[in-house]
Amino acid sequence: MEKVIDNHDLAALDQRFRAALVNSLSGFKSLNLVGTRSATGATNLAIFNSVFHLGAHPALAGLVVRPDSVERHTLDNILATRFYTINQVHHGIYRQAHQTAARYARDVSEFDACGLTPEYRAGIAAPFVKESYVRLGVEFKQRIDIGLNGTVLVLGQILQIHFPEQCQCADGYLDLEKAGTLAGSGLDSYHRTQRIERLSYAKPGVPLQEVLPEYLVEPGNFT
Amino acid sequence: MEKVIDNHDLAALDQRFRAALVNSLSGFKSLNLVGTRSATGATNLAIFNSVFHLGAHPALAGLVVRPDSVERHTLDNILATRFYTINQVHHGIYRQAHQTAARYARDVSEFDACGLTPEYRAGIAAPFVKESYVRLGVEFKQRIDIGLNGTVLVLGQILQIHFPEQCQCADGYLDLEKAGTLAGSGLDSYHRTQRIERLSYAKPGVPLQEVLPEYLVEPGNFT
Questions:
Q1: B153 part of contact set with chain A, CB < 8 Å
Q2: What does the pLDDT look like over B180-206, one tens digit per residue?
């Protein structure tokens, strides 16, 4: 049976029930750990399910930061140091990633508390997650305050990309499934994926074809 | 082997290769069909992999619209009529959904061209996709022009939610996997999902627990 809920029903729901419901509505989500460092050098790591692709040239990524949340430490650090890293969550680290959402005191690093390892690369003044496979070094570009609900959009340019070469296809596509990257749903659900197929560029009146994978290097263990 | 690509390498890449690569970097994506109607009543339908959760109270969703793309028909209609629908793509309609990305002439409805059915509900001046299971009726709230690359963020309030009641858990969460919703990656890859687990609310020093599913109504066929 179809259930219909309107905005008046929504307003009357228990806050946690509503949060769980509405967080399910956009569909599956990306799962990334955002690594930052404060002006005094303290590291911070937080899981985000709101990283989104904004553009390929220049390579831009967006991030939604909720007000009054642990994510504010991330925002404060980004504004202070202008750099952050985005590290995809894979099946080997999702429990540690989830644990970074706990409200640790500001002087506690989630890297230490959750069992993940900071790693630095020249040019990016923020810690990467050593255990992650697909990782981005990002420079802060713009902050947009959303008056509708007090959230903040953080836009940044991707300056560095790290990934296992075995995961790249000949047309540039990264096979995230091969990299073990997970998808999220709601606030707390972690999912592996199983590809149905890639599809050819859509044109009016032309039947779609499956795009078969062609990897740039031979398959192998990338860990 | 880890491969590292920096922003100078990126700028030198072939445009399509770069687009396929950079579109893979944010992780898995939501897959939704956005339904609109023009001021003169012509229907439009377009697949988006950029719908994101913006807030639960009020219930807000965001959408990235690229410039000079077929998505502009969607933007024009939203600005003209102030309403749109967001319809999750499931495994039974993903090929039709992908085909909506073709550059049809403005007087062609993607509903007709791609074999999907418009359906109207009181209160929402835009067509839903009859074949979709999880569907949102949305009122336009704000347009944000991103100067960095000419994209447009469209923010809207969710006024109506349609879903199969068998998919809702007792805590409000919608089991999108049960609804057959797919995840996307890159520009053209479609994935089923397989839940590893839901995890309890993270607190410092408290071990995480699996949240076991408890559905509000008995399982059954919801189609």
A1: yes
A2: 999 999 999 999 999 999 999 999 999
